[in-house]
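Supplementary Methods, section 5.1.

A reviewer requested that the exact input to the structure prediction be made available. We therefore reproduce it here, unchanged from the version used in the analyses.
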Amino acid sequence: MIAPHPHGALDLLLGWCAIVIGSGATLYTIVAAVYWSVRPGEDAPDHPKRLILREDR
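The structure derived from this sequence is encoded token-by-token as follows.
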């Protein structure tokens, strides 16, 4: 029988912490990207997005 590694539990905990933090950061980035794509908040008439949102196109 092989003896367990003395730092096995710590490695497992750190691994799960990395997964949780990485997943949270990824989820936050996706939510922020969708939010700012749907509601960019730019209302200025000279904003570059107005070039593609013209009525004559």
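Residues 8-38 form the longest helix (31 residues). These observations are discussed further in the main text.
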